[in-house]
Amino acid sequence: MPDSGTFDLLVVGGGINGAGIARDAAGRGLSVALCEQGDLGNYTSSASTKLIHGGLRYLEYYEFGLVRKALLEREVLLGIAPHIIWPMQFVMPHVKALRPAWMIRAGLFLYDHLGGSGSLPGSRGIALRGHVAGEALRRELNKGFVYSDCWVQDARLVVLNAKDAAERGATVWPRTRCVAAERRARDWAVTLRSTLDGDEWTVHAKAIANAAGPWVSGLLSDAGGFASRHKVQLVKGSHIIVPRLFDHGYAYIFQNTDRRVVFAIPYERDFTLIGTTDVQFTGDPAEARTSPEEIEYLCDAVNRYFSEPIGPEDVVSTYAGVRPLHDESGSGSASAISRDYALDLDTRQAPVLTVLGGKLTTYRKLAVEAMDLLTPLLGNDESEWTGQAPLPGGDLGEAGFDAFLASMRRRYPWLPEAMAWRLARNYGSRVEGILADATSLSELGHHFGADLYEAEVRYLVDHEWALTAEDVLWRRSKLGLQLTMEERADVESRMVNDVVHPVPGTASR
Fold this sequence. Notes:
The chain is of the alpha+beta class. The protein folds into 3 domains: about 5-45 and about 155-230 and about 340-380, FAD/NAD(P)-binding domain (3-Layer(bba) Sandwich); about 65-150 and about 235-325, D-Amino Acid Oxidase, Chain A, domain 2 (2-Layer Sandwich); about 400-495, Orthogonal Bundle (Helicase, Ruva Protein, domain 3), CATH 1.10.8.870. Helix content is about 30%, strand content about 25%. The strands form 3 sheets. Strands 3, 4, 5, 6, 11, 12, 13, 14, 15 and 16 form a 10-stranded mixed β-sheet that branches. Strands 1, 2, 7, 8, 9, 10, 17 and 18 form an 8-stranded mixed β-sheet that branches. The protein is globular, with a radius of gyration of 23 Å. About 50% of the residues are buried.
């Protein structure tokens, strides 16, 4: 059982917002603890479309402030995490019946300029018949547009924020639930329970940051009897994964007949990721699953554009996550609810800051604003710092990712090309923690399948809080797509029987 402790700040929720807040707070010199009922990034944050983007479609809802904020953050995040975030170009085929060309051009002009002069290429019109991205599309589609955004390894973004927080002194407790909270004049007494063995302990904190995602409204109501002051609407977004539908690096954004958009994105070398849906959700967010109706919806959406149709029988995997959208308006449309965030600071007794809404792209800005509200109450006057400090593994040097990868290939010439690229993309400069002084693949230990070896699994257990095969295969990597059922079972068996698990909260310290 962990020792009881006293902290300046307890962050409840180990998704991207909670991990970002913990990182920011630890870097300002505060004593910080973070608890998460599941694995880090277990739920919403690992079920995204995996984009760092401004949100082109939000322009239709006149959310210019959100788009500008997100575009500015896109540039910042690309600078601090160039290993797990990289540019990607998106092709939008034009369908006159859905949106006129002038409207798309105007929207893309705004998108190019709202965030200032960034590093990504601007938008342009293209003739699909003469473009490589047109080869997979229906023949009647002649005209399209190309614009830039970024891709991100979403669950790794969460883990690396938590890892950086831990390296700056934070205590991180995955698989630990907040079960009771007593609010007093000057502090909180919070009971935590391990979901692994049921052990309970009490911590004291001067303030709480409630970043519990889809559980945000009920967290303190359940644990301490404090009613939520805000309305949160739960919206499920589902994705499907199918075998690769095209052989190039462009992604697609397709206009749908319900005026939503659907993405089709190159995914993990051999697959295409298609999403997302917007479905109002009730029930336990941990039990969210992709429905047959959503699979049909996504297949139909892309079949309006691709020349080779797909059906439910082509889907090799799905995932779903529940987004907690801040909805003070009571809007009936899930798509129309803002993806912006709101912060509610209650100081009637010991402070509690409630995080409402948000998206991957703006998590760092949210954390900065959250800590700017809390630090004066905690006797701290340190200011923003996270926009300049690389996330773990992100210190690749001024020459960037390609030069880093080339250097890595020279040091480890025996690594297969695709494996070297994946390791560099997942771990950046921390890859030496896996490869060390190895001179051959056999020195990486047991081979599970695809390009997964024991050295990588051990690294994830020892340094990134991985406890199960699911943590390794579906969050910290996506290698579950590449391994057979038997190979995945082998990972689980060896982790249970062979790998020494660190005590939760001590990894990365």
